[in-house]
Amino acid sequence: MKYNIKIYDTLTGKVVDFVPVKEDEVKIYLCGPTVYNLIHIGNARPIITFDAFRRFLEYIGYKVTMVQNFTDIDDKIITQSYKEGVSFEKIARRYIIEYWKDMVDLKVRAFNFHPKTSNYIEEIVRYIEILIEKGFAYEVENGDVYFNVRKFDKYGELSHRDTNSMISGSRIEISTYKKDPLDFALWKASKEGEPCWESPWGKGRPGWHIECTVMATEILGDSFDIHAGGNDLIFPHHENERAQALASEKQFAKYWMHNGMIQLAQSKMSKSLGNVWLVRDLLKQFDSDVLKVFIFSKHYRVPIDISEDLLRAQEISVNRVKQSLKESEEYFQGFVPYSKEGEYFKSQEEYLLKNLANDFNTPSAIARLFDLSKELNKALNSKNESMIVDNYYLIRNVYGSLFGIFESSRSVEEYAVEVDDLIKVLIEVRTTLRNNRLYNLSDYIRDTLNQLGIEIKDTSEGTKYNFKSNKSEV
Ligand SMILES: [Zn+2]
Fold first, then answer.
1. How many angstroms separate the first and last alpha carbons of the chain?
2. CA 409 to ligand 1 center in whole angstroms
């Protein structure tokens, strides 16, 4: 690989060289949503961030395998199913479908695997049995099974916390059956009427943390490259995932990447606080390009303050870029000729990739995007065609591929290749017709193409064509 990638690794607490477990391949696990509601912009940040990180890795030639789970067994889903009087599966299915609608609108690609917890119960039960065998987990009288945190001496390494100073706080479940407040549930005995599965400890369901350890290792293997998620998951969720994996002698993730939170009115955006901005509602007001440029304009690790005013300001600058793209298309009457990239194109692309290789420095990429848009405007004013083409395709194709922004509905490059191929086929047919003296038909092809703005010329080197709107001969 040409690019020396550096990432901030939460475990070591510093920016480190990224060396994948297997050369040229990167395996990533990203914690996904609990499917009981529509997703808000805070849920969307890790998805948008790591979708782009994956695009970057693929762009520079890595084969990426990425997994994002759906948590479809959870108290919140069960509560919602009671409220509506329907099964938990129905709630989960509904919000998984809604999730995909939002992803399509955000122009986020599906990852390679999207496993659901309910499809991994057998594997989870087997995993818990191993933890019990190894002495890291214990069953209690009501049928719950807990992980014995004090037995695992590396506990706290990821979140850089000392077990003695840990307090039972956010998302640490309180239970009278636990030996220690830090212990967490691997298996929960089911209460009357709750969804449940058979297990050696009676009817119950898995705890939250075990599902990710199991699905990550089942799909990616015992050792993979990056475990990712929002930094609100570092403790206890990721600390617990890692404890379960290492206790069962799996190497698990080599690196841990975490994104910062999105803050609205100075408080963490969370459904429980009621200050929720649903992706769906935001996309009614703002284009996905505006939301994504806004998010990428800050480094993924820092918190983002979001407000309508800030988004409106971003919208103005994003619209300027769109305007310059539109003017380029108008200049070339709808079809900007694709050219083999020259020095300028290569050096801009190189700059961008180097910055992204440096702990995914998207703010510099976004700053450069606006520079390119200015260059494009200058080129339009001075009618510098090669600069129009280069800047246009840098934004449309390179930013399009890397971030899923400013994309046309189809890749313009793909479109250009198809048009070119089709015209060549027509020219071959016309030549064959002429060779057989079927001039009526060969002239029909020439005249019809001419009406479509494609000029056919027979030269000593064979038949050539050009678009009448520009003079680039093919
Ligand atoms: Zn997880």
1. 34
2. 33
Give distance in angstroms: CA of 62 to centre of ligand 1: 24
Ligand 1 center to 212 CA (angstroms): 5
Q: How far apart are CA 135 and CA 147, in angstroms?
A: 9
What local confidence, expressed as pLDDT, does residue 420 receive?
77
Residue 420 identity: D
Bond prior to 195 in cis (omega within 30° of 0): no
Please give the distance, rounded to the nearest whole angstrom, from the Cα atom of residue 283 to the centre of ligand 1.
27
pLDDT tens, position by position, 94-124: 999 999 999 999 999 999 999 999 999 999 9
Give distance in angstroms: CA of 247 to centre of ligand 1.
17
Residue with the two structure tokens 């979140």: 159
- Cα(249) to centroid(ligand 1), Å: 19
Q: Could you tell me how many residues make up the chain?
A: 474
Cα dist from 153 to 157, 163, 242, whole Å:
9, 9, 12
Question: What are 27-76's pLDDT values in tens digits?
Answer: 999 999 999 999 999 999 999 999 999 999 999 999 999 999 999 999 99
Given strand 145-147, what is the order of strands in its sheet? 137-139, 145-147, 184-189, 204-206
What CATH homologous superfamily does 6-282 map to? HUPs (3.40.50.620)
CA distance 59 to 355: 14
Residue 385 Cα to ligand 1 middle (Å): 50
Q: pTM of this prediction? A: 0.84
Distance 301 CA to ligand 1 centre (A): 18
Can you give the residue ranges of every domain in the chain?
6-282, 286-409, 413-467
Distance 259 CA to ligand 1 centre (A): 14
Low-confidence ranges of the chain (pLDDT < 50): 168-170, 270-273, 411-412, 470-474
